[in-house]
Specification:
The complex is a heterodimer of chains A (99) and B (505). Chain A is mostly helical and 99 residues long. Chain A has three helices and no strands. The chains are: A mainly alpha (99), B mainly alpha (505). At the A-B interface, helix 1, helix 2 and helix 3 of A face helix 6, helix 7 and helix 10 of B. Chain B: Keywords: Membrane, Transmembrane, Transmembrane helix.
Chain lengths: 99, 505
């Protein structure tokens, strides 16, 4: 099977994630969409690694996973704090700072 | 099977290792040292670590043009200059962070809860901001010296993640501060996803994750240009977000306003140096031969950034938001140095970054001084007549505003002049015209603030200027002295930068 099909899947996942970030209102869902984008990038890395016959792309994918895990720690901490003080995780409710 | 140990060149990595070591000790101090001693211990540790890193950096400056950690880190002239600027700015920012009045006593407690009241009354201050600062500084000094995509991405996240948390630590207006943290985090993570996707396509184009490999693939040509264009575009989005260029600027006014002012000072100055440092390396070395693809777009972004930043700043009634839009305009000025793509542009951008960073920390330091009983006063209307009440604060703020406006005898003039002449030399006339025009617009609102402070009658509303600590005062004085010194006698630093600033490829 042609490996470039995985690139199309990756682009599709990235687009779904990006659209999700823009249209969804719940901070957790927005964050999940961002994770989807990171994983789409990972899929691209692994696919290019296969196409180019070079292992560095796979190493990069591991680094991305670790960094994404760190991002989850920080992100959920911030979202949970906001939820505890406002009883809402909607990104629209957080509008104290003037536009 | 034989195994060869990689050559790490620890001496070149040592400033970063010192910073990370200090940060880890800071985490342990947070856990084991008694609450009463913690602020003093953390401050000493943080300043000591930063000074040690500066000294170590100075010692290894002779060993330029070397790579470390199997080619993932490159240490050349610009690397030394940018790392030194970041560390110096971090030190004067830590002077501001030392005023614990700005930070929530117990960030985990609900705003307004009994738990929080007890923490404030008992004086138990959580001091986790210090290790977070050190982690962020370590990421920042790694960002401009990264020499492959993995290191670049890890450094980007290492500088961003602590900053997201630091934005949410404000003691006053805690909900706004938490909101700033959420916005910064979501948009920052969004942009780093773009960055990573771009990195994947650059890897796909060149079959290499090292900058040298990507450059060779671009120079050699013959690859799939679609992959290259997607790669450059998406990677640039990630970098432009970090510097706050239009149209990726929407986070910065909110985050600048909501974050505790010392953190805003640190973030505004040091993040810009780190991100522009990485941009300089990437555009000047890696993408230099694909100039046709990014110069027009980046010129457009620079023009829009300068004009929009200056125009919207006029309408701001809040000092921190005004400074945020002014920093957006300055991102545009700095971008014109990146577009120049010549030696003069590189020198000018490095000089401008340092001069602007110092003035920014100074300006935010003055903002922390103007207070009433409920904390900082950032409403510009209440800054009326500040010159009569506190000549020190008003005069130094006026000096920093004049430096932002680029008035002669301040560092800003030298910076703007050299960056625009470099851009003109490279043929980017449109960018220079837009730059001069928006400098004029910007000068209007900077001078309006000066008129407001000196030539308007004060209203009695309890706004006063407090000098909370000798360290805050010191950071204002240092920033003012550097701003004037670089304006009156810039030649030594300019020569120093010109001699050193040569990228190795």
């Amino acid at each position: 099977m042609d490996a470039s099909n995985y690139l199309y899947i990756s682009a599709l996942l990235f687009t779904i994630g990006a659209v999700g970030v823009v249209v969804r209102r719940n901070a957790i869902v927005v964050f999940m969409c961002i994770e989807l984008m990171l994983n789409a990038a990972n899929l691209s890395f692994v696919t290019f690694s296969r196409i180019n016959g070079d292992l560095n792309g796979q190493i990069m994918a591991f680094f991305t996973m670790v960094v994404a895990a760190c991002e989850v720690v920080v992100g959920l901490a911030i979202i949970v704090t906001i939820y505890r003080s406002r009883r809402s995780a909607s990104v629209d409710d957080a509008s104290l700072l003037k536009r | 099977m034989s195994f060869t140990a990689p050559v790490l060149s620890y001496s070149l990595l040592s400033p970063m290792l010192i910073l990370l070591g200090g940060a880890l000790i800071g985490v342990l101090v947070e856990a084991f040292v008694s609450k009463a001693l913690r602020p003093a211990v953390q401050l000493t540790l943080t300043l000591g670590t930063l000074l040690l890193a500066v000294m170590q950096l100075w010692r290894i400056r002779g060993q330029q043009s070397l790579t470390a950690a199997v080619g993932t880190i490159v240490f050349d002239g610009p690397a030394f200059l940018l790392q030194a600027s970041i560390l110096i700015i971090a030190i004067i920012s830590v002077f501001l962070i030392a005023d614990t009045e700005h930070f929530a006593a117990l960030p985990a407690a609900l705003p307004g809860s009994e738990e929080e009241r007890q923490a404030v009354q008992s004086g138990n201050q959580i001091t986790e901001v210090y290790p977070l600062t050190l982690f962020a500084v370590a990421g920042m000094v790694m960002f401009p010296v990264a020499n492959d995509l993995i290191t670049l991405f890890v450094a980007l996240e290492m500088l961003s993640l602590p900053l997201y948390l630091m934005a949410g630590l404000s003691r006053r207006r805690r909900l706004a501060s938490q909101e700033a943290a959420l916005k910064y985090f979501l948009l920052g993570a969004f942009s780093s996803a773009f960055f990573l996707f771009g990195a994947a396509y650059l890897y796909g184009y060149s079959a290499s994750i090292t900058f040298a490999g990507i450059r060779e693939a671009i120079v050699g040509g013959g690859g799939n240009d679609v992959l290259l264009l997607i790669g450059i575009a998406f990677l640039s989005i990630g970098l432009l977000f970090k510097v706050g260029a239009v149209p990726f600027h929407s986070w910065s006014p909110d985050v600048y306003q909501g974050a505790p002012t010392p953190v805003t000072a640190f973030m505004a100055a040091a993040t810009k140096i780190a991100a522009f440092g990485a941009m300089l390396r990437i555009y000047y070395t890696v993408f230099a031969n694909a100039q046709w693809s990014w110069t027009p777009v980046l010129s457009g972004i620079a023009i829009v950034t300068m004009l929009l930043g200056s125009l919207v700043a006029i309408a701001q009634r809040d000092v921190k938001r005004m400074l945020a839009y002014s920093s957006i305009a300055h991102a545009g000025f700095l971008l014109s140095g990146v577009i120049a793509l010549n030696k003069a542009g590189l020198d000018a951008t490095i000089f401008y970054l340092f001069a602007y960073g110092v003035a920014t920390v100074g300006a935010f330091a003055v903002v922390t001084l103007v207070r009433d009983s409920a904390g900082e006063v950032t409403d510009l209307n209440r800054w009326k007549g500040l010159g009569k009440r506190s000549p020190f604060a008003a005069t130094s703020f006026a000096l920093f505003l004049l430096a932002f406006a680029g008035i002669p005898l301040t560092s800003g003039f030298i910076g703007k002049f050299s960056i625009f002449s470099a851009a003109y030399e490279s043929g980017a006339k449109g960018v220079v015209i837009a730059g001069v025009l928006s400098s004029a617009i910007a000068a209007f609102f900077y001078i309006r603030v000066i008129v407001l402070m000196f030539f308007t009658d004060a209203t009695e509303d309890g706004t006063s200027v407090e000098i909370p600590s000798i360290l805050t005062q010191a950071s204002v004085v240092i920033a003012a002295v550097v701003t004037v010194a670089l304006g009156v006698y810039p030649a030594p630093l300019l020569d120093f930068i010109t001699n050193l600033a040569i990228f190795i490829r």
